[in-house]
Specification:
Order of helices and strands: HHHEEHHHHHHH
CATH topology of the largest domain: Four Helix Bundle (Hemerythrin (Met), subunit A)
Helix content: 55-70%
Shape: elongated
CATH class of the largest domain: Mainly Alpha
Strand content: under 5%
CATH superfamily of the largest domain: GntR ligand-binding domain-like
Length: 247
């Protein structure tokens, strides 16, 4: 694959690598660069930006860590524009939690509001195939015995529910929030919580099939509130600011 033609501007700043990264991001936003494109060779890029090779390499390393490019070695290698990876969003949100910038109240509130819209859209747009898949996941959850397998079922269930909206953004958000919550839900009475959530999943499918958005959103809110209380009871919210729920 031949490198694409670009229109980079010379960089004159002590933090040249940041400006290089910004220019490449701007060309992505403008559509001049897209997934799969190969950037020019290092020598050409350094000349276009009028920076040292070391400054350019620092910029390319930064872009690689951010998931924007991937460096491929070999004769046909080089720096290629990556496809978008939702896991980057998941990791960024987990980092916010670990740094103590997100409270459990905020997490629960966000989940309730997002799932409220997801459930309503799924009621409106979901197909019988979507509902059958949700029901099958609920059945599979009931048959599983390990907590890890049951949690994997939960991830699948929420992913299918989000997909039923026809909006892929919901899938990304749900996956990120589920990844955060996984670290905090397990506790002494987690088995009981699992049994309750299985019942909730079957009930939700019934409401979705009936196109009863009010009943479906109420069921989801009840479940998410139950999970919130479970985490608080087991003292697993210390990295989420330790904040008690508002009345």
């Amino acid at each position: 694959m031949q490198p694409i033609k670009t229109s980079f501007v010379p960089v004159k700043t002590p933090r040249a690598f940041e400006v290089i990264c910004e220019q490449i991001r701007l060309q992505l936003a403008a559509g001049s660069l897209k997934t799969g494109d190969k950037l020019p060779a290092e020598r050409e890029l350094a000349a276009a930006f009028q920076v040292s090779r070391s400054a350019l390499r620092e910029a390319l390393r930064s872009l690689e860590v951010a998931g924007i490019i991937r460096n491929v070695k070999g004769v046909k290698g080089g720096a290629f524009i990556q496809s978008a990876d939702p896991e980057r969003i998941n990791q960024a949100m987990r980092d916010f939690v670990h740094l103590g910038n997100i409270t459990l109240d905020e997490l629960t509130e966000a989940r309730i509001l997002i799932q409220h819209d997801i459930v309503r859209l799924a009621c409106e747009r979901g197909t019988e195939a979507d509902f059958a898949e949700l029901e099958a996941i609920a059945e599979r959850t009931k048959a599983e015995t390990s907590l890890e397998a049951r949690y994997a079922c939960a991830v699948d269930y929420y992913a299918v529910l989000a997909r039923a909206t026809g909006n892929r953004i919901f899938g990304i958000l749900v996956n990120a929030l589920s990844g955060i919550l996984q670290e905090f839900v397990q506790g002494p009475d987690y088995d009981l919580l699992q049994e309750q959530l299985i019942s909730t999943r079957f009930a939700l499918v019934r409401h979705l099939r009936a196109r009863d958005a009010d009943a479906a959103t109420a069921e989801m809110r009840k479940h998410l509130t139950r999970v919130h209380r479970h985490v608080l009871r087991n003292g697993r919210d210390s990295r989420l600011g330790g904040k008690r729920p508002r009345p």
